[in-house]
Amino acid sequence: MIIYGTALLAACHLLGIFIGDLLGQAMGVKTNVGGVGIAMLLLMLARLYMLKHDKLPKLTELGVEYWGAMYIPVVVAMAAQQDMVSALRGGPVAVLSAIAAVAVCAVVIAAINRGEKLSPDDEAEARLNNPLVAAEE
């Protein structure tokens, strides 16, 4: 059953690479644009869909979780292969897109944190662990 998680990842990876190639062609570049990221988003969406409809056995979910954990080292390795010097020489688009990506991530993380509801135990622990809150009381 764990192999089904790997099969789901493979299907999402192939579809993500295909979409990334199409996106690259639409942008006029001869490269894959965001295929691995698209694949991970597809994997997350497929996992959530299957969980919602009770179509994801526990062992399959373990396979999906394993590959989800392996995703970050794979992306770091892929990013290490990029030639940043030529990207920066190509124009300010690389710098602007990096700044925009960081800004969007910060806004999304802030929105998630503000939307999270803490249980009474979590609030008490937050007060104990935060010296600024404890000083105000």
Automatic annotation (TrEMBL):
InterPro entries: Maln_transptMadL. The keyword Transport does not apply. Keywords: Membrane, Transmembrane, Transmembrane helix. Pfam families: MadL. The chain crosses the membrane at residues 7-27, 33-50, 62-81, 93-112. One of its GO terms (cellular component) is membrane. This is Malonate transporter subunit MadL. The lineage of its organism: Bacteria, Pseudomonadati, Pseudomonadota, Betaproteobacteria, Burkholderiales.
